[in-house]
Amino acid sequence: MAGSLVVVVLSVILAPIHGISPDETLPEYLGKYGIHVEEHSVTTDDKYILGMFRMPRPGAPVVLFMPGILASSWCFLDNDPAISPAIQMYDLGYDVWLPNNRGNTYSRKHETLQPLLSKQFWDFSFPEMGVYDTPASINYVINATGKPTLTYIGHSEGTSQFFVAMTDNRTKALVEQRVNLFVALAPVAYLSHPKSLLIKAMSTARVGEFVMATFPFGFLQFSAVKNIAHFLCTATFGLLCEITVATVGGVSKEDTSAAITNFSAHFPAGTSVKAVEHYAQFAVNGKFQDFDYGCNFLVCENMKVYGQKTPPAFDLSKARVPTALFVGGNDALGDTTDAARLAKELPNSTVVFNEVFPDYSHATWLVGTPSSFHAWFPKLTSLLSKYNPLAFDFVV
Which residues of 123-147 are buried (b: 16+ CB within 10 A; e: fewer)? Predict the structure, then answer.
């Protein structure tokens, strides 16, 4: 007890030292702690150019961290270095890779499309991330390191896209061959019980449909989006006037204000309007399926896109990669009831870990207290010792 108190006190005292500035680059930040950072570019099969960072330990087992919606690689670094998931994984001896999905701060490039001008650039949601970004990132890391497999650790949307990758026929075999363990922090597949103010706003009063119709571009990265923010504020009677960590996934007593402040330095990092609307659709239809373009007696856009009246569902029973579910008991986006449904639909042999951590919010894994970190992180490292163990033969 005394030891825990000392850790908490030291964390509070040292918090200002570990503050993150919005103007600070990721390599500059990690350089303060003696960690060299490599910067990489990954091109997907549909020509998006994704930014990726590496905390290199050549020859070591590989861990890849995939961020959630509206976040970037920063989210795994925002807490105190002593309890930052990515830094602690690196300190343990792993070769750590930090990719970014299309549309966020580090992945707004394309070989032919211009994000400022092209609606087509922003015509994506997490299924495209699962089918294109996920395998491109995995293949790039495997080719760069020479390692046959890696551990994929996703948070929020980073889990949604991997559930797609495990079930889509275009990617299923690849991830089964190249991913030794899938760690799902705050897993999201179903959203029948959302408490997230952002999802509620987008799924009620047809707010999401309005935004899709009037501004089908990026969400929360251009000055023009201020008009969207104003509309959301008005439409929700002031309930949603700022997009913050709490707005997306809630907060809890297990979260620290210093880490949330750091998180907000690079959040929101942007995504497509379509991606946010896709999650809002889940809150309405209660299904884990592709994007719903609509179908009525006049016109059926789904028929044009999919050749059927309803969007194809993602069949979770096809998932075969060993999967560990870390669920927050106070998660406003990945509710425990929805997470339980997800676990039930995955094959029993696939789920190798499934635990609800009381009071954890959607972001506690990233911004939690020292005590919360030391409650979940050792369970992660225990899983890694089985599925992706350290051999201590890497080059420092």
Answer: ebbbbbbbbbbbbbbbebbbebbeb
With beta carbons less than 8 A apart as the criterion, state whether 92 and 390 touch: yes
What are the catalytic residues?
156, 331, 362
> Would you say 59 and 258 are in contact if contact means Cβ atoms under 8 Å apart?
no
For the chain, domain boundaries: 26-193+255-267+315-387
| CA 339 to chain centroid | 16
Q: What is the pLDDT of residues 307-334, one digit of tens each?
A: 999 999 999 999 999 999 999 998 988 8
The pTM of this model reads: 0.86
Largest Cα span, the chain: 69
> Residue 208: phi, psi to the nearest 5?
-60, -45
Q: Contacts from 88-91 at CB under 8 Å and sequence distance 24+?
A: 88/377, 89/63, 89/65, 90/35, 90/55, 90/57
d(C-alpha 150, C-alpha 168), whole Å: 20
CATH class of 26-193+255-267+315-387: alpha beta
